[in-house]
Amino acid sequence: MTMLDATLNATHAPDLRSWVASANAEGTDFPIQNLPFGCFTAASAASHDTTGIPRMGIAIGDQVLDLRLMQFALLSNASPAWALTADTAQPDTLRDWLAPLAAGDLNAFMTLGPAARRGLRAWLSAALAQGSPLQATLQPCLRAQADCTMQLPCRIGDYTDFYSGIHHATTVGKLFRPDNPLLPNYKWVPIGYHGRASSIVVSGTPVKRPVGQLKPPTAEVPTVGPCQRLDYELELGAFIGTGNALGTSVPLAQAEDQLFGLVLLNDWSARDVQAWEYQPLGPFLAKNFASTISPWVVTMEALAPFRTAFERPVVDGGDPGTLPYLDGPANRSAGAFDLTLEVELQTSAMRAAGLAPHRLSRGRWSEAAWWTLAQLVTHHTMGGCNLQPGDLLGTGTLSGPQPAQAGSLLELSGGGKAPITLPSGEQRTFLQDGDTLTLKAWGEKPGTRRIGLGTCSGTVLPAG
């Protein structure tokens, strides 16, 4: 039995339908097979509710199942329907799982471990399925997503950004180091740096153009001013679940259990600031002004149908192999995920003219990454670093092997030398004020329901 076979169950059945009608629509990111976690504030008060207090919810179609309201509804309902089936959680266990979520604390739920996450998923799947005896009880606990303001899904204590996209690393390396684009350690070490958690924002939050030191190649001394080469980076972010103790490491065979779920991640980048400051210690002000994530955390269980064998991309110089601590049969057989990744751009002029966002690129995660998520977890902890619930690991820019699969404008415009022409007639080498950048990702294949990660958007505001 493969890892993929072991992780598929009734919650993934492609013919499973929900009594929430919008969850059955073709193309929805949030069918009943998904059930991602998110934090929101309500636009209006409901019974046993307080407007403006962050609360946890589950996305289902175009609705949100309010877990605080659900807890109250279930406590008010003495019906044995709580148990649903012999295979789902019993009331006492369910109360324990729901308590931190009803309190708006996803981090506390993460500490309960993968068994609680999988158990609650099975219960929610049965409760939201067509024919559920809890439909009448849970119907009043739904809110329209359009009426909710999304927040960061959890407290992000630490953020580490990796560099697992080898095509991005090679292309960018050629721009900065034409004679030595890929440094010797890249194929052996999961390269990463510790980012700034305090400037991570949720999708929809405007991003102000940063100010920094700039030094064009022809200038003798640097100047200070607004970034002129503002860029995005198409990434995925993985949230840590239970974490590990200081001084311990997580073996590769156990690393999957540390992964709670995924979000989209745009690691905004000031390329001109970066070019001047990045040596000798790497990114600093070029990266710390904003990183945007999508609001819904799609669990590893929801993405199980899209697991695939991990095969490293074919690149110049070949594959030298993997050190034993980063290698294992389960990682090789099903450590990767086949997700489609897409980037769209809409300028302020396009919005004014009623023009739809323009797709800049589309690629696949499985064609981009030199390392799996499990390998990133294992390497991060090998020296005894303690990961904690809610820590975020970025994959790094996930560019495919073809130019149209690039995950940044730096690559798409050849370092600013080849402007991109948009449907409005405008051109872009880097982002301008008023531009809205949107990331999307989804899994889709025959015999499964499409699972999406939602969207990750941000609009550039002027410096100042």
Report on the architecture of this protein.
The protein is globular, with a radius of gyration of 22 Å. The protein has two domains: 3-151, SH3 type barrels, CATH 2.30.30.230; 159-461, Fumarylacetoacetase-like, C-terminal domain (Fumarylacetoacetate hydrolase, domain 2). The chain has helices spanning 3-7, 67-75, 91-102, 106-110, 114-128, 135-138, 166-176, 252-255, 271-277, 329-334, 348-352, 373-381, 409-412, and strands at residues 37-42, 55-60, 63-66, 142-144, 148-151, 159-162, 192-194, 200-202, 207-208, 211-214, 223-226, 230-231, 234-240, 259-266, 269-270, 291-293, 298-299, 307-308, 336-337, 340-346, 358-364, 392-394, 420-421, 427-428, 436-443, 451-461. Helix 2 (67-75) runs antiparallel to helix 3 (91-102). It contains 13 helices and 26 strands. The mean pLDDT is 93. The strands form seven sheets. Strands 6, 7, 8, 13, 14, 16, 17 and 22 form an eight-stranded mixed β-sheet that branches. With 464 residues, the protein is α+β, with helices and mostly antiparallel strands.
Based on the model shown, name its key terms:
single chain, 464 residues, alpha+beta, SH3 type barrels, Fumarylacetoacetate hydrolase, domain 2, 8-stranded mixed beta sheet, 5-stranded antiparallel beta sheet, 13 helices, 26 strands, 24% strand, globular
